[in-house]
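Thread: Newbie trying to understand structure tokens

Hi all, I'm a second-year student working on a class project, and my supervisor (Dr. K.) asked me to get a predicted structure for one chain before our next meeting. I've only ever worked with sequences, so writing a 3D structure as a token string is new to me. If someone could post the tokens and maybe explain what I'm looking at, I'd be very grateful. Here's the chain:
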Amino acid sequence: MSQQRIIMNYTIPPSNEDIQVLAEETFDSIPEEIMEFCDNLVVQVEDVADEALEADLNLDDPFDLILLYRKGSELTPGVEKKVANEDDVLIIFRRPFLDYWCETQEDLNNLLRQLMIEELGQNFDFSDDEIEEMVDRHYQGAL
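---
Reply by user tm_fold:
Sure, no problem. This is what the structure looks like when written as tokens:
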């Protein structure tokens, strides 16, 4: 009887820059219904939420926050500020995103698209049913 060996290849996890490129490409493929609200949206990648944001949002763990949408005029969600740059920002927290990816074992691109649609859809007051329909429609289009 011969013995079989399984050899696995490991690579390094995607960097902030890798996730940034993926997010920008993914952003171009989100539903038009959401894109209508995203004229001044900037996508940004950070490792995890900092302590100030963690305190502002009353997070038990910074890994609880995967994506966060902020209007250009918000200091923290719900707190207005006056700034010269009014760009809206979608922040992707790399480490929690990669943890979630490992847990779900979904395709990385599809998972990021789904999370972006859900986060933006909720912030632009789409119903849960509308968000689910957009996710399903764009998941099918990605296959």
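A couple of things are worth pointing out once you decode it. DSSP finds six helices and five strands in the chain. Confidence is low (pLDDT under 50) at residues 80-84. Feel free to ask follow-ups in this thread.
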